[in-house]
């Protein structure tokens, strides 16, 4: 919480269930209610569609809804459900795929990018350079989960190497011990970490 308050850009990196998205959105709503920003912008990469939403059947809303539904779910926990459509119609709250951020400058906004492990390095750079005056960004993701096709590098996976030490940017590392969902999720994350660690240890060579 302090990192978000004290920095313009904060990265929250950790496994599922640690409350990364929920915390970021709670801070966004609090900033809006305190009139620190004029609007909230929530975004996710539509990675399963390759961000090529034009090729999917249906209206734009029907196309993007499955990718953005977790953000809407969190919003409904924090804001009166009846108020959300009005806030979206007036542009006070915007929920949009990452591809829709290109070419924009986002002033006086609290901007949350969720599932950032599914950005490419180019998309991550594009998103970060949308930052405008009076705005704050929180980027969340789990670098152990990557749905990018063809072995593409994750923009979140390399961002610390690029931005570590840059003033006004912070990195929060969350672990399985921070899981706030069902207690089993923390155990599941730890079990996977143990399995991955065991797989990465080279086996001893057999002697003839």
Automatic annotation (TrEMBL):
GO terms for cellular component: cytosol. GO terms for molecular function: ATP binding. It is found in: Cytoplasm. Its main location: cytoplasm. Keywords: ATP-binding, Cytoplasm, Nucleotide-binding. Pfam families: PhoH. Residues 1-193 form the PhoH-like protein domain. The keyword Nucleotide-binding applies. Belongs to the PhoH family. PANTHER family: PHOH-LIKE PROTEIN, PROTEIN PHOH. This is PhoH-like protein. The lineage of its organism: unclassified sequences, metagenomes, ecological metagenomes.
């Amino acid at each position: 919480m302090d990192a978000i308050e004290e920095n313009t850009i904060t990265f929250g990196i950790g496994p599922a269930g640690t409350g990364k998205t929920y915390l970021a959105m709670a801070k966004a709503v609090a900033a809006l209610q305190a009139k620190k920003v004029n609007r909230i912008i929530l975004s996710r990469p539509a990675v399963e569609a390759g961000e090529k939403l034009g090729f999917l059947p249906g209206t734009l809303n029907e196309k993007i809804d499955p990718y953005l539904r977790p953000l809407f779910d969190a919003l409904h926990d924090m804001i009166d459900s009846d108020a959300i459509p009005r806030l979206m119609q007036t542009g006070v709250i915007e929920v949009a795929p990452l591809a829709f951020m290109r070419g924009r400058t986002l002033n006086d906004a609290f901007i949350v990018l969720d599932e950032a492990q599914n950005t490419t390095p180019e998309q991550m750079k594009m998103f970060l350079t949308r930052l405008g005056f009076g705005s704050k960004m929180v980027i969340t993701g789990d670098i152990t989960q990557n749905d990018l096709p063809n072995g593409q590098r994750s923009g979140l996976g390399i961002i610390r190497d690029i931005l570590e030490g840059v003033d006004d940017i912070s990195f929060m590392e969350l672990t399985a011990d921070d899981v706030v969902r069902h207690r089993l999720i923390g155990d599941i994350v730890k079990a996977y970490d143990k399995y991955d660690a065991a797989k990465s240890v080279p086996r001893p060579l057999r002697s003839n």
